[in-house]
Amino acid sequence: MRLVFAGTPEAAVPSLKALIDSPQHDVVAVVTQPDAPAGRGRKVHPSPVAQCAAEHSIPVLKPVSASDPAFIDELREYQPECCPVVAYGQLLRPEVLSIPAHGWVNLHFSLLPQWRGAAPVQSAIWAGDEITGATTFRLDEGMDTGPVYGTITEPIQATDTSETLMQRLAEVGAHLLVETVDGIASGIVEPLPQSTDGVSYTSKISTADAHIRWDLPDPLVSRHIRAMSPAPGAWTMLGDSRLKIGGV
Fold first, then answer.
1. 67 CB-contact burial (10 Å; exposed 0-12 / middle 13-18 / buried 19+)
2. How far is it, in rounded angstroms, from Cα 18 to Cα 30?
3. Each residue of 170-221: pLDDT tens digit?
4. N-term to C-term CA, the chain
5. Looking at residue 80, what is its pLDDT?
6. 35 alpha-carbon distance from chain centroid
7. Distance between CA atoms of 135 and 232, rounded to whole angstroms?
8. pLDDT at residue 247, as a whole number
9. Which of 66, 83, 75, 70 is nearest to 27 (CA)?
């Protein structure tokens, strides 16, 4: 199938690479967030997904808003049959969702309907979940509410930070996404409505959320620190100074 891939962070790169390597599909373009400051020097850099696309000579679209009519027209010109999505970072209007015949297939790093929203990996560790995973589903206008194609589970280890867990989920999720797109192309996969049981939500983690509460039991403090590592980074006050504490 002709694919337009949408994604932004490093966690989306394994999925993009897997789809590029798939003999059944042709990634004709990539959609990602505009270049942004990164690193200690805060120099402006393209997203990890944009860098990966450039390495493979794939055209990259970087709309400031996915609702921009010029972007929508350009997307239509690529005539995608399906649009896989991994952590793109923008909400998509119905006009955009309707462009590919097989829709936008999102890879979400939780076992939906658990942890719908922006920070599923951090929330799973913070909450003390023992098992998490990844889900592929068809995007609709809701917040991670679309019908599900498939899931894969992944145990949360006692030493996991959000970084180490995300790295594993990105790899296993990439395989799940390719299998899902393969199944859609061959007509053997149909999405099923999400369960109405066990629904939970997570919002974007703020710096304030990362403030350590030392009055809580040690296991909760440990989970909190690991969930916040590496970003935004758990912190505490030492005198008048703010001290950042990494996951252990």
1. middle
2. 14
3. 999 999 999 999 999 999 999 999 999 999 999 999 999 999 999 999 999 9
4. 44
5. 98
6. 18
7. 25
8. 56
9. 83
